[in-house]
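In this supplementary section we document a worked example of the pipeline. Step one takes a protein sequence of length 393 as its only input; no multiple sequence alignment statistics are reported here. Step two produces a three-dimensional model, which step three serialises into structure tokens for compact storage. The input and output of this example are shown verbatim.
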Amino acid sequence: MADSDFVVDGNHAVEFKLVKTGNDLHDNSLIFRPQMCHQIFGDDESIYGFKNLTIKLYYKADSLQVYCGFDYEAKLPGIEVSDLMRKVKTHYEFDIIENLQDFEILVNTEKVSPYGSLIGEFQDHEMKLYEIYYCTNSTPSFINFHQRLQTFLLWFIDAASYVDMDDSGWNFFVVFEKYHCGDEIRYSVVGYASVYDYYAYPEHIRPRISQVLILPPYQSKGLCMKLLFSLYNHYLAEKSNILDFTVEDPSEEFQRVRDCVDCKRVLEKDIINHQKLVTETRVKLIEDMHIICKINKKQARRVYEILKLKYLNRLNEQEFTNYRVEIKRRLNQPYQKQMKLVSKCKSGMTLQEVHDNIISDEDRKARLDLMFLETIDQYSSVISRLQNIGSNA
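The serialised model returned by step three reads:
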């Protein structure tokens, strides 16, 4: 056999399951796979030494107790399964169950309820029930549960890192599916968000949303949006000293959800409507969003632009031209800052260095045109989603 037979793509080799009953162990329709594995197996995401390798990482749906097992057709001499297990255990800072029968017994006998305080409940379009719980590092038994929960980050969020659970600044919002198994009520983990309360002078806090994850079996159901609404509502009801909310390095996908939620909150408060976009200044509307909804200034500016696009008449050439000029003026600001910086540095730069740091006016206009079209596409997607959200989202 060729050496290439003993190289597998880690993202294909790893299979996850959320196991609710013993029967789920044999149901391949429940399998979902990681988006990445370089944080476990290295940058090339390849695993060497095994032919047709399968790594089974099965999580008990309520407590997230983990079973890890390996299947393969053959292995190279000197390569051991224990080597793979060590790589997994390096990042799983708790006891892993390695015997499938022991795991099945646990699944069929142990029943775990959610940790923390219930802060929200809702149904999806399939009439499935969900509950959201608020937890901190002082929530009984939550720290051990969180150790298992955060392992999903390594497989689904790039550059993920574990949080310091000794720091009381962390807050957690965990979503569970609530379902019936016979006459019993059971729970399955859906996803979660972590938020850190940063100090803001003189007596405020600035909550920063750090990590948000909805597990693949529950994605594309609008649950991330529900989670974000509940998170905001909890903070605004419980804490009066919030300056504004921030997000740590949001992905494009999460930014779309954030845009939609913030726009919905602004519309519900009637901060922006068609009339106010005519009678109120841009500065006033952005300040109102910041004060009332605690949306930080940069995000509030984005929400303003989205809602202005929602209400303007795109068939009115002058109206749309004015909007395009306003957006391009903002998009052009980094270029203007670059020009000022180059101008300050010119005395110490060669002609070639000056040339290398300045793009031509033609290139700048072409880039602005492209950036404007991309912005309109992003904003239009949010507007379309807004139209599909129920009034109780």
